[in-house]
Specification:
11 strands
């Protein structure tokens, strides 16, 4: 059973930065592609970034100039580095683990990011 725990969310002013962490357990972490998603109130959950096991990561067009994703397989952790935060980035951010076929096998509980103007 893969368990994911996000951390690092909080309240930040527009233009600020945050780094979210997602710690994984119960899996051979290096074999899982990982992704970050977010869900704002009243909106559908959307993909923010995807980091495969070996290929280059992908970041959504809406944030690609401001967000980057990285992973530390030795620490079983994936990170979302967010800079130039905007009010529209306010959402609950979730990480997810995928199996070898791209199916989501686990989600974290989410961490709230609130950007104030």
């Amino acid at each position: 059973q893969v368990q994911l725990v996000e951390s690092g969310g909080g309240l930040v002013q527009a233009g600020g930065s945050l780094t979210l962490s997602c710690a994984a357990s119960g899996t051979r972490f290096g074999a899982n592609a990982m992704s970050w998603h977010r869900q704002a109130p009243g909106r559908q959950r959307e993909l923010v970034a995807h980091i495969p096991t070996y290929d280059s990561p992908i970041v959504a067009d809406s944030v690609k100039d401001r967000f980057t994703v990285s992973r530390d397989n030795a620490e079983n952790t994936v990170y979302l580095h967010m800079t130039g935060l905007k009010c529209e980035d306010t959402a609950v951010y979730y990480c997810a683990a995928e199996d070898g076929l791209g199916y989501f096998v686990s989600w974290g509980q989410g961490t709230q990011v609130t950007v104030s103007s």
